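Q: What would this chain look like folded?
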Amino acid sequence: MRDFTVAKYGELLDALKAAGYRFVTYEQYIRNKKTENREIIVPDEGKEPKTVILRHDVDKRPENSLVTAELEHGKGISASYYFRSVPVSFAPDIIHRIAALGHEIGYHYEDMSLCKGDKARAKVHFKQKLALLRTFYPVTTICMHGAPTSRYDGRALWQEYDYRDYGIIGEPYFDTDFSRLLYLTDTGRCWDGFKVSVRDKIPEYQDEWSKRGWTYHTTDQLIAAIRAGGLPSLMLTTHPQRWTDNPRAWRKERVIQTMKNSVKRIIVKIS
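A: My prediction, written as structure tokens:
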């Protein structure tokens, strides 16, 4: 069967539910950390259920995100959807509809790239776009957009400024304890895309995860690992643009991602 279809994503969700995982949004994760002063997502010697944070980066084709959001809602699951401020991602009607389904909305920021590395301009841009997104949802968490072809890392903005000054309580790359949480992402249209990823990876823990065998290429391999047990609590990041049951769109996404991976391999080698 084809991978990266909506049907396959549904199988992944069902496997997580059957394995007893508890679903939380990233905002819920951060707020629980603050109120309980401990990582609730980490099971206490099997006494607490393992937890999964479903993070969706809406890089483009927001209509695909509505499909996954409706699928999750039908299964009683809430997830976190991060929208960019550019036209290919920012779709007000879809943002409204996804929020109405009970999902969290966050800002997928790339202000440093859009402002050519000018931190002062990027700060203003960030503040404006965050305010715009908050007209649709009370955004409290943000997440960096990798922008692999840009030489500017969006996270560099916080070397000079503090996102907490804007009412933001969490950013995954800064506020998640990955020593106690396994991070898996479909970057590269596979689950071991850290090999070609420029920024969407957690390099300080990847070697340890690899030693434990927690690396998977296909969704079927990941599902099998979940069913077998032994995986810890998770943050799963997907890009809904590549999950589709439409054969033509599926083939197009596969071809485009194969070409992008070739470019990213070059970038990773020279960086």
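The chain has one domain: 6-264.
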